[in-house]
Every structure is written in C-alpha cells, then in structure tokens.
Amino acid sequence: MRISLLRPVEAVGQAVLSAVAAVGRAGQLGLGAVRALRKGSIWGPHLLPQMAKIGVDSVPIALFIALFTGVVLSLQASYTFTGAIPLYFVGTLVGKTMVLELGPVLTGLALSGRVGANIAAEIGTMRVTEQVDALETLAYDPNAYLVVPRVLAGALMFPMVVLLANGVGVLAGWATSLSLLDMSSQEFLKGLRLFFRSWDVWFSVIKSVSFGITVTSVGCFFGFGTTGGAEGVGRATTRSVVVSSMIILVLDAFWAAVLLK
Amino acid sequence: MSIRLIDVHKAFGEKQVLTGFSLDIEEGQTLSIIGGSGVGKSVALKHVVGLLEPDSGEVWVDGRNVSVLSQEELYELRRDVGYVFQFAALFDSMTVNDNVGMGLKRIPGWTPARISARVEECLHLVDLDGYGDRFPAELSGGQRKRAGLARAIATEPKYLLYDEPTTGLDPVTTAVIDQLIVRMRSELGVTGVVITHDMDSAFRISDRIAMLYDGRIRFEGTPDEVRGTQDRVVRGFIEGRPDLLEVAS
C-alpha cells in the first residue's frame, strides 16, 4: 500500500531529475559549441555545404507555404473587410501579417520538420553507429565538426529563407487581390505602404535568426542524445521536431512581448 | 607500462559494468581481452582513449593520466592511438579515401598530396587497392573492417585498439584480419589491445590474454597459460561450457 502511494511521488521525482539532466546536457552542448567556435579549421569547410543544405534546399517548401498563405490572407481579409473597411486595407493586412507573423513562424515550423528532423536523424545515426566516437578518436571535436556549422548555417540562412517567403507571400496576396478581388495595384500598394515600417522587417529577421538557432541546436541536441538503434533515431527525430516547434511558438510570443511594445 | 588501467569502476545508471578493473599492457605486445557478450569489454577499451571517463580509478597511456587531460591534450594523445571499431564506424557520406585520410588532415603540415600517398599506402596494406573511391555502403563487412583498420593505422599510431575486429566475418576474412593484426605488431611495433570472444583468433594474435568476468580481470596469462588453466570460468568460456560458468558463479 505504502509502495503504491509513493509511486506518483517517485514518478514526479524521476521526471524532475530527467529534466534537470536534460538542461545540464543542453548547457554542456551549448558551452562546447561556443568553445568550438575557435576551431575554424574544422567547421569552416562545412559551413557552405550546410548553408546550401539548410537554406537553399529549404526554399521550395518555404515558398510553397508562403504562396498559399498570401492567397488565403488576401481572400480572408477581403471577406472580413467587405462593406465595413476600405478594401485597400487588404494590402495592409497581408503585408503586416506575412512579415510580422506568418512568414517567420510558418517557415520556422516547416523547417523544424525538414531541417531539425534531418539533423537529429543524421547525428543520431552517427551516434548509434559510433561515427561520433570515431570522430573523437581521430582528434576531431564533434561540436566543431557537427554542431557549429549547422547552427551557424541555421542562424545565417533562416532569415534569408524567411525574407524570401515574406516577399512571395505579399506578392501572392497582391496577385490574388488583382485577379480575384477586383482591386487595383494602386489600392493594394496604398494599403501595403500605409502602416509599413522598416522595423517590421528587422523584427522578422530577428525572429527567424532565433528560430534558425533553435531548430538546428535542438536537432543536434537530440541527435547527440540518441541511444538504442533505429528506434532511438526515430524517437530523437520526433522529439526534435516537437520540442523545436514548441520553442518556436514560445519565442514567437517572447519576441512580440519584448520588441513590439 | 604503456597502457595501464588501475582499479577502474564504471556504472551506467544502476548497472555496475566495471568493478575494479585493472590491467597492464606492455609496450610492443598484443593483449586480447576475452569475455562474454555485454560484460564490459568495449567499455574498458573506450576508457583508454577517453571516450568514457571512469567513475573511479585511473587510466594511464604512455605515461599520461587520461582522466585528467584537457580536451586538447586528449586529442594530442588520440593521435598516438588508433581505434578499430566493431562495425568499422566509417563515415557514410565519405569515400573510403576520405575516411582513411580523416585523421591525417588533423596533422599540421600534411599536404593533400602527402595525405593521398599515405591513404594509398594504407589501403594497400589492408589489401583494398582500388577501393578508395567507393562509399562504405558499397563494401562488404570484411572490406569495411579493413577500411576501418586502414583509417586507424593511417596516422602511424603507437597503439591500436581493436573492438571485435573479426566478429561476424567468415573464416578466411578472419584469418586475413588476424594476419594484419600480427603484422601491425611485428612490422610496425604497434602495441595492441584486442577485444574478442573468438578464441581461435585470440590464440593466434596474442602475446597475452586476459579474461574479463564480473567487472574485473579474472585471469591473465600467455596463450599457453590460458590453455592450461584450471580456472573453471576461463575453461568454461574457452571450451564453450556454460555448466562450468554456472558452477563458478
């Protein structure tokens, strides 16, 4: 009886211990990555290939999402505004929403699946097949070889992809306004310019840098923590996507609270 | 002593794997560590290159206490130690040439031409001439192990650690790998530590054999001493008789 009463307490204790251990491992990985920054001879040659893999290869999916987001935003704005608000506000809503929110967040979430899962699976497989140990025995710091080029590439390329997505989303909204809403280009552009501030673009860039660092470092973290063969790799990949998506949403709220006051 | 493990204890969670593991390996010798699956042979080996840290005890390699070395000192030490992994651990995304040349790229002053020449030489040594442009997925199990061996010897290490180098290989490939291990010692003077549970192989390649049992070394001696021992656990293992192991435990 006493044992069954203690079981929930033990479970909570175990969960707390696991969480503290995970925070410790994350801190260790972060510290190791920062220290590894000075080993440019190891991570340098891998930066450009990672930028291509993380950034350039992600452009099609990001633009696909942005394209349809722009179309839907334009149609929904028109549906909401008709008869109550001048229709040129469609341009305002499409521009503001794409740049401030949907461009960075939807791209971030999509790339947490594409990029984060890829990193976790790749490093996880290397971990369970002892390739990470092999790197160590060949005098390569795995942080410098695997973590630094991926996180730097994420920080540099996510904003590029997000800016492209923002642009395509606005263009899609514009085209939709012209073709389906009987608006003129002048009207759409008038709305787009109305509340436009260059700070909005910087806000988008800051958010996407933080998303890029999050997705890549969470992928690395779960990849390095992989145990247990193929099943373990699958578990690490799933966790990486779930956790980085959650952190993206938390960061989204955080940046809005801190930077849009 | 070139490699020395002193009273090493290591646990993973609740599971005690090494419980006072001590072993000395003389320079220029090949020592095989035998023992059943899952008794901690690979765990012991990983301590030698600092891939694992002991919970207590000391590991000395070439007069250096591995447990207290800084990261840079550890990488320096690892240049003197080649490690042949159980499943080769070749980098999937690289060709055999790139795999073998990985360690050489970390040595200051080595030009691409010199690296390329050394890679060719190592591939020749393990009878993999002409396989340099292939990817690991295009190699058989035995070829992968030989490529792993070529990568380990490329930097001309003083020590070679082999983690089950012949497990899962056919008898002919096993004999080829055994010959390579013997050549490493006789021609290059390399000190070797071999993890194996293949007794034929252990008798062929070893100067000394140590048996790991219950987290510590149960018996250590020359191949002849191992063959002649009356220790029930060792006899049970080398003769494949679980009844002797059960009586002993």
Please describe what this structure looks like.
The complex is a heterodimer of chains A (about 260) and B (about 250). Chain A is mainly alpha-helical. Chain A has one domain (about 45-260). Helix content of chain A is about 85%, strand content about 0%. Chain A is built from nine helices and no strands. Chain A is elongated, with a radius of gyration of 22 Å. The mean pLDDT of chain A is about 95. The mean pLDDT of chain B is about 90. In chain B, strands 6-7-8-3-9-10 form a six-stranded mixed β-sheet, with helices on both faces. In chain B, strands 2-1-4-5 form a four-stranded antiparallel β-sheet, with helices on one face. Chain B has a domain at about 1-80 and about 195-250: P-loop containing nucleotide triphosphate hydrolases (Rossmann fold, 3-Layer(aba) Sandwich), CATH 3.40.50.300. In chain B, a hairpin with a 2-residue loop joins strand 4 and strand 5. Chain B is of the alpha/beta class and about 250 residues long. The two termini of chain B are about 30 Å apart. In chain B, helix 4 crosses helix 5 (about 140-155) and helix 9 runs antiparallel to helix 10 (about 240-250). At the A-B interface, helix 5 of A face helix 2 and strand 6 of B.
Give the helices and strands, then pairings:
The complex is a heterodimer of chains A (261) and B (249).
Chain A: H1 2-36, H2 40-54, H3 59-81, H4 89-128, H5 131-137, H6 142-180, H7 185-194, H8 198-224, H9 229-259
Chain B: E1 3-12, E2 15-25, E3 30-34, H1 41-48, E4 56-61, E5 64-65, H2 71-78, E6 81-84, H3 96-101, H4 112-125, H5 141-153, E7 159-163, H6 171-188, E8 191-195, H7 199-205, E9 208-213, E10 216-221, H8 223-228, H9 232-238, H10 242-248
Helix pairs in contact in B: 4-5, 9-10
